[in-house]
């Protein structure tokens, strides 16, 4: 499990999170990962690229689990 600490506000867009965690090397790649239904948000598949991710949520993508703190 990986922890991601939010800075500068109380949320981050899903696309930005994938880029910052180096799961995707570009915004286009992040969008493709999301469109391919490979991302779960709190156990449910998330298909919104700009979904606002907040403290306490858990994001799962490939074999990684990211906890937002």
Structure explained in plain terms:
There is one protein chain. The chain has helices spanning 14-20, 27-35; strands at residues 2-4, 11-13, 39-41, 44-45, 52-54, 58-61, 64-68. β3 (39-41) and β4 form a beta hairpin. The mean pLDDT is 96. α1 crosses α2 (27-35). 17% of the residues are buried. By secondary structure, the protein is α+β, with helices and mostly antiparallel strands.
SSE series: EEHHEEEEE
- What would you say the CATH architecture is? Roll
State the secondary-structure class.
alpha+beta
- DSSP strand tally: 7
Average pLDDT, rounded to a whole number, is: 96
Helical region count?
A: 2
Low-confidence stretches: none
Question: What gross morphology would you assign?
Answer: globular
Q: Which range best describes the helical content: under 10%, 10-25%, 25-40%, 40-55%, 55-70% or over 70%?
A: 10-25%
Q: Strand arrangement, largest sheet?
A: 1-7-6-3-4
- Distance N to C terminus: 12 Å
